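Researcher: Re-running this chain for the archive, since the previous output was lost when a drive failed. Same request as before.
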Amino acid sequence: MAPGRDENGRFVKGHKGGPGRPPRPVEEKYLKMMARTVKMSDWEKIIEVGISRAKAGDLGWARFLAEYLMGKPVQRTEVTGAGGNEIVICVRYGDDGTDDYTP
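Model: Regenerated structure tokens:
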């Protein structure tokens, strides 16, 4: 177990963890500076280089372009019961004390 953490992995009192994400106003200053500094023609050249490198097998660029253009893939998880059978989920509506449900 990491020092400063409890049995569930949470930070214990007196250990605040890492620095975390910068405050939003600080982040906004950097975003505004980048928007002023990086011109559209610069960005176009960067992307052209990235496309060329992705075509040459650079997986980092290929991943960046794919995630930027199509979004990160969603990880799907199939949940089945014992022996691969379907799981029946019962939802209880109301609080009348009965065990009535609609599968």
